[in-house]
Amino acid sequence: MRDEVFRRLRDAIVDGTFAPGEQLRDAEVAAWLSVSRTPVREAMLRLAEAGLVVALPGRSTMVSPLHVRDLRDARDVVAALHGVAVREAMSRFTRPDIDAMREANERFRAALDEGDVDAALRADDVLHAIPVAVAANRALAAVLDQYTPVLRRAERMRFSTTAGRASIARHEQLIESCRTGDSEGAAAVNYDIFHSLSGTEIDQNR
After folding, report:
1. What kind and span of H or E run contains 152?
2. Is 136 in the same domain as 181?
3. Of 69, 130, 140, 121, which is closest to residue 98 (Cα–Cα)?
4. 3-class secondary-structure state, position 43
Protein backbone atom coordinates (compact mmCIF):
# COMPACT_ATOMS: atom_id res chain seq x y z
CA MET A 1 0.00 0.00 0.00
CA ARG A 2 2.77 2.45 0.92
CA ASP A 3 4.67 1.80 -2.30
CA GLU A 4 1.52 2.09 -4.41
CA VAL A 5 0.56 5.42 -2.82
CA PHE A 6 4.10 6.70 -3.36
CA ARG A 7 4.09 5.63 -7.03
CA ARG A 8 0.72 7.19 -7.74
CA LEU A 9 1.64 10.49 -6.13
CA ARG A 10 5.04 10.51 -7.81
CA ASP A 11 3.48 9.85 -11.22
CA ALA A 12 0.82 12.52 -10.67
CA ILE A 13 3.55 15.07 -9.96
CA VAL A 14 5.67 14.00 -12.92
CA ASP A 15 2.77 14.04 -15.40
CA GLY A 16 1.54 17.44 -14.20
CA THR A 17 -1.69 16.29 -12.55
CA PHE A 18 -0.31 18.15 -9.53
CA ALA A 19 1.37 21.33 -10.73
CA PRO A 20 4.51 22.95 -9.27
CA GLY A 21 3.49 25.07 -6.30
CA GLU A 22 0.22 23.21 -5.73
CA GLN A 23 -0.58 22.32 -2.12
CA LEU A 24 -1.17 18.67 -1.24
CA ARG A 25 -3.26 18.18 1.90
CA ASP A 26 -3.06 14.75 3.49
CA ALA A 27 -6.81 14.37 3.95
CA GLU A 28 -7.63 15.41 0.37
CA VAL A 29 -4.96 13.16 -1.13
CA ALA A 30 -6.12 10.24 1.05
CA ALA A 31 -9.69 10.73 -0.15
CA TRP A 32 -8.51 10.94 -3.78
CA LEU A 33 -6.61 7.65 -3.45
CA SER A 34 -9.22 6.01 -1.17
CA VAL A 35 -6.64 5.21 1.49
CA SER A 36 -5.95 6.28 5.07
CA ARG A 37 -3.76 9.27 5.83
CA THR A 38 -0.88 7.14 7.18
CA PRO A 39 0.47 5.84 3.83
CA VAL A 40 -0.04 9.31 2.37
CA ARG A 41 2.16 10.87 5.07
CA GLU A 42 4.81 8.19 4.51
CA ALA A 43 4.70 8.79 0.75
CA MET A 44 5.07 12.54 1.30
CA LEU A 45 8.26 11.94 3.29
CA ARG A 46 9.73 9.85 0.47
CA LEU A 47 8.70 12.45 -2.11
CA ALA A 48 10.38 15.15 -0.02
CA GLU A 49 13.60 13.11 0.05
CA ALA A 50 13.45 12.92 -3.74
CA GLY A 51 12.92 16.66 -4.00
CA LEU A 52 9.46 16.43 -5.54
CA VAL A 53 7.59 18.07 -2.66
CA VAL A 54 8.38 20.61 0.05
CA ALA A 55 6.90 20.40 3.54
CA LEU A 56 5.24 23.56 4.82
CA PRO A 57 5.36 23.36 8.66
CA GLY A 58 1.93 23.59 10.24
CA ARG A 59 0.19 23.91 6.88
CA SER A 60 0.48 21.30 4.15
CA THR A 61 2.89 19.95 1.56
CA MET A 62 3.62 21.73 -1.70
CA VAL A 63 4.72 20.28 -5.04
CA SER A 64 8.26 21.50 -5.57
CA PRO A 65 8.73 24.29 -8.08
CA LEU A 66 10.86 23.42 -11.09
CA HIS A 67 14.31 24.71 -10.16
CA VAL A 68 17.22 24.44 -12.58
CA ARG A 69 19.67 23.67 -9.77
CA ASP A 70 17.54 20.75 -8.51
CA LEU A 71 17.33 19.39 -12.04
CA ARG A 72 21.06 19.66 -12.58
CA ASP A 73 21.88 18.02 -9.24
CA ALA A 74 19.60 15.07 -10.03
CA ARG A 75 20.84 14.95 -13.62
CA ASP A 76 24.48 14.59 -12.56
CA VAL A 77 23.65 11.71 -10.21
CA VAL A 78 21.38 9.91 -12.68
CA ALA A 79 23.78 10.35 -15.61
CA ALA A 80 26.70 8.97 -13.64
CA LEU A 81 24.78 5.97 -12.31
CA HIS A 82 23.46 5.00 -15.74
CA GLY A 83 27.06 4.94 -16.87
CA VAL A 84 27.92 2.61 -14.00
CA ALA A 85 24.90 0.43 -14.76
CA VAL A 86 25.78 -0.11 -18.40
CA ARG A 87 29.40 -0.95 -17.54
CA GLU A 88 28.30 -3.52 -14.97
CA ALA A 89 25.74 -4.98 -17.36
CA MET A 90 27.99 -5.22 -20.41
CA SER A 91 29.23 -8.78 -19.93
CA ARG A 92 25.72 -10.02 -19.11
CA PHE A 93 23.66 -8.67 -21.98
CA THR A 94 21.75 -11.31 -23.94
CA ARG A 95 20.27 -11.06 -27.40
CA PRO A 96 16.73 -10.74 -25.95
CA ASP A 97 17.96 -7.79 -23.86
CA ILE A 98 19.25 -6.01 -26.95
CA ASP A 99 16.09 -6.84 -28.90
CA ALA A 100 13.97 -5.46 -26.05
CA MET A 101 15.93 -2.21 -26.11
CA ARG A 102 15.43 -1.92 -29.88
CA GLU A 103 11.70 -2.56 -29.53
CA ALA A 104 11.47 0.09 -26.82
CA ASN A 105 13.23 2.63 -29.04
CA GLU A 106 10.83 1.87 -31.89
CA ARG A 107 7.91 2.48 -29.51
CA PHE A 108 9.64 5.68 -28.44
CA ARG A 109 9.97 6.80 -32.07
CA ALA A 110 6.33 5.96 -32.82
CA ALA A 111 5.14 7.81 -29.73
CA LEU A 112 7.02 10.96 -30.73
CA ASP A 113 5.62 10.68 -34.25
CA GLU A 114 2.12 10.58 -32.76
CA GLY A 115 2.81 13.32 -30.24
CA ASP A 116 2.09 10.95 -27.36
CA VAL A 117 4.44 12.19 -24.63
CA ASP A 118 3.19 9.71 -22.02
CA ALA A 119 3.91 6.76 -24.32
CA ALA A 120 7.33 8.23 -25.17
CA LEU A 121 8.20 8.47 -21.48
CA ARG A 122 7.06 4.88 -20.86
CA ALA A 123 9.14 3.57 -23.76
CA ASP A 124 12.15 5.59 -22.62
CA ASP A 125 11.75 4.16 -19.11
CA VAL A 126 11.65 0.60 -20.47
CA LEU A 127 14.76 1.09 -22.61
CA HIS A 128 16.91 2.52 -19.83
CA ALA A 129 15.59 0.08 -17.24
CA ILE A 130 17.05 -2.88 -19.14
CA PRO A 131 20.77 -2.17 -18.43
CA VAL A 132 19.86 -1.34 -14.83
CA ALA A 133 18.04 -4.64 -14.43
CA VAL A 134 20.85 -6.59 -16.10
CA ALA A 135 23.43 -4.92 -13.84
CA ALA A 136 21.42 -6.18 -10.84
CA ASN A 137 22.91 -3.59 -8.50
CA ARG A 138 20.20 -2.94 -5.91
CA ALA A 139 21.84 0.14 -4.40
CA LEU A 140 22.23 1.74 -7.83
CA ALA A 141 18.61 0.96 -8.73
CA ALA A 142 17.35 2.45 -5.46
CA VAL A 143 19.15 5.76 -6.00
CA LEU A 144 17.93 5.97 -9.60
CA ASP A 145 14.37 5.28 -8.45
CA GLN A 146 14.66 8.22 -6.07
CA TYR A 147 16.11 10.83 -8.41
CA THR A 148 14.92 9.90 -11.92
CA PRO A 149 11.42 11.37 -11.34
CA VAL A 150 13.00 14.80 -10.87
CA LEU A 151 14.32 14.56 -14.43
CA ARG A 152 11.07 13.19 -15.79
CA ARG A 153 9.39 16.58 -15.47
CA ALA A 154 12.10 18.10 -17.69
CA GLU A 155 12.01 15.14 -20.10
CA ARG A 156 8.26 15.57 -20.46
CA MET A 157 8.90 19.10 -21.67
CA ARG A 158 11.64 17.94 -24.05
CA PHE A 159 9.62 15.09 -25.54
CA SER A 160 6.76 17.48 -26.29
CA THR A 161 9.03 19.37 -28.73
CA THR A 162 11.10 18.41 -31.76
CA ALA A 163 14.22 18.45 -29.56
CA GLY A 164 13.08 15.10 -28.16
CA ARG A 165 13.77 13.37 -31.46
CA ALA A 166 17.52 13.62 -30.85
CA SER A 167 17.08 10.89 -28.24
CA ILE A 168 16.16 8.36 -30.95
CA ALA A 169 19.65 8.45 -32.46
CA ARG A 170 21.29 8.47 -29.03
CA HIS A 171 19.29 5.38 -28.10
CA GLU A 172 20.42 3.66 -31.29
CA GLN A 173 24.06 4.43 -30.44
CA LEU A 174 23.57 3.07 -26.94
CA ILE A 175 21.97 -0.13 -28.20
CA GLU A 176 24.72 -0.73 -30.78
CA SER A 177 27.42 -0.20 -28.15
CA CYS A 178 25.70 -2.70 -25.87
CA ARG A 179 25.40 -5.18 -28.76
CA THR A 180 29.10 -4.97 -29.61
CA GLY A 181 30.32 -5.00 -26.01
CA ASP A 182 31.70 -1.45 -26.11
CA SER A 183 31.27 -0.62 -22.43
CA GLU A 184 33.01 2.77 -22.56
CA GLY A 185 31.08 3.82 -25.65
CA ALA A 186 27.80 2.76 -24.09
CA ALA A 187 28.62 4.56 -20.84
CA ALA A 188 29.53 7.74 -22.72
CA VAL A 189 26.31 7.74 -24.75
CA ASN A 190 24.20 6.95 -21.69
CA TYR A 191 25.86 9.78 -19.79
CA ASP A 192 25.25 12.17 -22.68
CA ILE A 193 21.57 11.21 -22.92
CA PHE A 194 20.88 12.26 -19.34
CA HIS A 195 23.47 15.01 -18.99
CA SER A 196 22.01 16.80 -22.00
CA LEU A 197 19.12 17.84 -19.74
CA SER A 198 20.81 21.14 -18.94
CA GLY A 199 17.95 23.11 -17.50
CA THR A 200 16.98 24.75 -20.79
CA GLU A 201 13.67 22.90 -20.74
CA ILE A 202 12.77 24.44 -17.40
CA ASP A 203 14.07 27.92 -18.29
CA GLN A 204 11.83 27.95 -21.37
CA ASN A 205 8.72 26.78 -19.53
CA ARG A 206 8.66 29.11 -16.54
Report:
1. helix 138-159
2. yes
3. 130
4. helix
